[in-house]
Amino acid sequence: MTLRWGLAAIHLLALAIGFTGIWERARALRGTLDAQGLRRVFAGDGLWGFAALLWIGTGAARAFGGLEKGTLYYMGQPYFAVKMALFAAILALEIMPMVTLIRWRIAIRRGEAVDVRRARLIARISDVQTLLVILIVFAATAMARGIRP
Question: Which pTM value belongs to this model?
Answer without folding.
Answer: 0.91
